[in-house]
Amino acid sequence: MTINALAGIAVKDLAAALPWYERLLDRSPDARPMSEVAEWKFDGGGWIQVFEDPQRAGRSSVTLVERDLDERLSDLDAKTIEIRNATDADSVRTAIVDDPDGNQLVFAQSVGNAIESSSS
Q1: pTM of the model
Q2: Exposed / middle / buried, residue 46 (Cβ in 10 Å: 0-12, 13-18, 19+)
């Protein structure tokens, strides 16, 4: 079975959220299938979909697997995106940021082979 994931992130107002996500991801959305939806495709596979849903906004959590978390941390710092929490465990390193609506985005890097299959 082949599976490719599309992770959804609910926001209050897509027009207000788009500039933050474009800054975070260094580009405009790859697709706008509906006026209330923006999608970004990742070279390593998978998508994130940011969509307008005021009732569910701020309740999403998405993990994005990184090959070089230090590079991501430098990028976030340069963009003045606050890192809410960072951890260095035996199998994974993480950095957590919140979007303006309170959705959690976790950047994770495998230490050793712990989540290597996710980032291949």
Answers
A1: 0.87
A2: middle
